[in-house]
Amino acid sequence: MIELIAHNLAPIMFVTVMALLLLGYPVAFTLAGGGLFYFLVGLEASHLAPNEIHLTTSLLSANVNRIFDVMRNETLLAVPFFTLMGLILERSGMAEDLLDTVGQLFGGVRGGVAYAVIFVGALLGATTGVVAASVLAMGLISLPIMARYGYNTPLATGTILGAGTLAQIVPPSLVLIVLADQLGQPVGRMYSAALIPAALVIALYCAWIFIVTIVRPAAAPALPPEARTLGRGVGSLLALIALSVVLYFAGRAVFDPMMRWENAVVMASVVAVAGPLVIALLNGATGGRLVSRLAERVVLVMVPPLTLIFLVLGTIFLGIATPTEGGAMGAAGALALAFAKRRLSFDGLRQALESTTRLTAFVMFILIGARVFSLTFYGLEGDRWVEEVLTAIPGGELGFLIAVTALVFILGCFLDFFEIAFIVIPFIAVAARALEIDMVWLGILLALNLQASFLTPPFGFALFYLRSVAPNAPWVDAQTGRTMPAIRSADFYRGVVPFVVLQLVAIAIVMAFPQLTGSGGEVRPTVPATQTPAPMPLEMPGLALPDLALPDAPSN
Question: Where is pLDDT greater, at 240 or 308?
Answer without folding.
Answer: 308
